[in-house]
Structures are given as structure tokens and as C-alpha cells.
Amino acid sequence: MTPSTRRKLKRGLGATVFFFILTVVLSNRWVINSTDAYIYTDWALLPFNDVGIVLGTSRYLQNGKPSPEFKGRISAAAQLYEAGKVKHLIVSGANPDDSYNEPRQMYRALVKLGVPDSAITMDFAGFRTFDSMVRAQAVFGLSRVTLITQRYHSYRSVFLARKLGINAVGYLAPATSDGGMGRRNPPREIFARVKAVLDLFFLRTQPRFLGDPVQIKLSDEAEAA
User: Fold this and answer.
1) pLDDT tens digits for 1-18?
2) Which of these, 87, 93, 81, lies nearest to 122 by C-alpha position?
3) Confidence band of 97 (pLDDT split at 50, 70, 90)
4) Residue 40 pairs with which residues in a beta bridge?
5) Helices 102-112 and 68-82 meet at what angle, rounded to 10?
6) Does an H or E element contain 103, and which?
7) C-alpha span between 220 and 141 (Å, rounded)
8) Is 147 exposed, middle or buried (0-12, 13-18, 19+ CB in 10 A)?
9) What is the distance between the alpha carbons of residues 13 and 197, in angstroms, rounded to a whole number?
10) Assessment of whether the complete model's pTM goes beyond 0.90
């Protein structure tokens, strides 16, 4: 390989790395800056919506201990239902096999906290956040929704929903065992925001499974409220 060829390769590699870093930075700033105004930490300030979506996460950490993120999302969802900020909850998550079922675990935890089973719908095809948001509109017919998850995940969730035409707001669930909101920004989430932009605007991504429309039925008590 000649010196001039090596120089060209180095310049090409440098340009590629620069473009990659720039794409990551700009995508993350776009996702965060365009959604920050729609994310709430105080339930009293949160707009009323008929339906809230609890986004799936594992009930346990890799070390086998209970996940504070799972507990936080469930507690926040039950709080919003009790306060009348939402009338119905969709628990949306992955269900790849009999041994792992996020919606079922979320459903059981919410019922234990006093949310009636008639006010909960399980979405077993929320394999990704993108899938959950597409299905919220295409399957469940939602035009407005409250998304319940942690801070780092809320930006991408609200971004996806709003770019798909859903008037979405996010409610932050506790992320730590002491009830703190958490400030961590996992590396996986940084790249997931880039993937969200690609899915929406470049890749024409479709959810793994769409299915037939499902009508959300609000309970008589919720409708009266």
C-alpha cells in the first residue's frame, strides 16, 4: 500500500468517525430538546388523558434482585390511576416465551396495588418502544396518551409517539430504590435514540407484529369520573 493510499484511507476513516459522532450527538439533542417540554415529574401538573401506557421492563435485575425501575413504573402508574390522571392503563412489553412475560408481570403488580383488572389492557407485542408506539395508534386507536417510564427512556418514547402523530406526554417514574428519579443515561439509550430517528425517517421500519384493532373500554366508574 502506497503512502498516498494510506493517507486517503486515514482521511476516509476520520471523516466516517466524525460523521458518526455528529449523527449521534445531533440525534440525541433533537430527541431530548424536542420532547423535554412534554415530560412531567409532578403528577399534579400532568394533563389528564384517558389512557396511560406503562412501558415494559424486566421485573428483576441480572443479579436476581427486584428491579427498582419496574417497581417505579408500576408505582407511578397506580398513582396516576388513583389520582384520576388516567382512566385506563395499557401495559406494553415483550413476551418472547413462557418464561418471560413483561405485560403479565406488570398486570399482576398493578392489581396488587389496587388497580382493577377491568382498567388494565395487556399489550403482548411491545417488543420495542417503537412497536409499542405504533401499536398505540394503529391497534388501540389512541390519539392522546400518557407514557410512564424513567427519565432516560421518556425522551425517546415521547419523541416516537409525537412523530407518529400521537399527542403524548411522559410521566417520570422513580429509577432508584430510594425513590430518586435518576440521572443516568445508559450508552444503549444514546444509540437507541439514533435508531429511533432512523426508524422514523429513513428505514421505513414496521413493528414485528401489528394485529387487529383493539377497543379500549373505559369502566363505568372511570367514565362517570
Assistant:
1) 788 887 778 888 989 999
2) 93
3) confident
4) 171
5) 50
6) helix 102-112
7) 20
8) buried
9) 24
10) yes
Residues 6+ apart with CB under 8 A from 51: 86, 87, 88, 89, 90, 140, 142, 144, 145, 146, 216
pLDDT of 2 = 85
Pairwise CA distance, residues 129 & 131, whole Å:
5
Residue 19 burial (CB < 10 Å; 0-12/13-18/19+)? exposed
Nearest CA to 152 among 134, 167, 170, 136?
170
Domains held by the chain: number:
1
Distance CA 57, CA 153 (A): 11
CA atoms within 13 A on the CB side of 119: 25
Indicate if the alpha-carbon torsion angle 195, 199, 203, 206 is positive or negative.
positive
Q: Torsion angle of alpha carbons 7, 9, 10, 16, nearest 10°?
A: 150
Domain limits at 124?
A: 3-224
